């Protein structure tokens, strides 16, 4: 169950980072509220996960899910341009996250 909590925490990290962009520096109240709610939920699910998972495993997986998700949403929603070579490292990040899961 801890791994499920960790994935949910990572998805909420992606959510709040995306809402932060939409909040335009906390000038749009609705998106600012969504950002804070996403942060709270992300940390809450991370806290649930680290009850049983080692912090040294949970934290990098959490941030990795958030990073990859945010990169993908940045490209889809905001037209962020990512150089082709950068995608190699994004794939390596995904491989690393899966590798951590498979070896713990």
UniProtKB/TrEMBL annotation:
<keyword id="KW-0813">Transport</keyword>
<protein>
    <submittedName>
        <fullName>Small multidrug efflux protein</fullName>
    </submittedName>
</protein>
<dbReference type="InterPro" id="IPR045324">
    <property type="entry name" value="Small_multidrug_res"/>
</dbReference>
<keyword id="KW-1133">Transmembrane helix</keyword>
<dbReference type="InterPro" id="IPR037185">
    <property type="entry name" value="EmrE-like"/>
</dbReference>
<dbReference type="Pfam" id="PF00893">
    <property type="entry name" value="Multi_Drug_Res"/>
</dbReference>
<keyword id="KW-0472">Membrane</keyword>
<feature type="transmembrane region" description="Helical">
    <location>
        <begin position="29"/>
        <end position="47"/>
    </location>
</feature>
<comment type="similarity">
    <text>Belongs to the drug/metabolite transporter (DMT) superfamily. Small multidrug resistance (SMR) (TC 2.A.7.1) family.</text>
</comment>
<feature type="transmembrane region" description="Helical">
    <location>
        <begin position="59"/>
        <end position="78"/>
    </location>
</feature>
<keyword id="KW-0812">Transmembrane</keyword>
<dbReference type="GO" id="GO:0022857">
    <property type="term" value="F:transmembrane transporter activity"/>
</dbReference>
<feature type="transmembrane region" description="Helical">
    <location>
        <begin position="84"/>
        <end position="103"/>
    </location>
</feature>
<dbReference type="InterPro" id="IPR000390">
    <property type="entry name" value="Small_drug/metabolite_transptr"/>
</dbReference>
<keyword id="KW-1003">Cell membrane</keyword>
<dbReference type="GO" id="GO:0005886">
    <property type="term" value="C:plasma membrane"/>
</dbReference>
């Amino acid at each position: 169950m801890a791994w499920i909590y960790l994935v949910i925490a990572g998805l909420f990290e992606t959510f709040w980072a995306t809402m932060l962009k939409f909040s335009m520096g906390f000038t749009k109240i609705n998106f600012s509220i969504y950002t804070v709610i996403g942060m709270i939920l992300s940390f809450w699910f991370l806290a649930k996960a680290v009850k049983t998972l080692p912090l040294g495993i949970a934290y990098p997986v959490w941030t990795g899910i958030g990073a990859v998700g945010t990169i993908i949403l940045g490209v889809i929603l905001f037209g962020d341009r990512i150089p082709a070579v950068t995608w190699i490292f994004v794939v390596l990040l995904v491989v690393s996250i899966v590798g951590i899961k498979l070896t713990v």
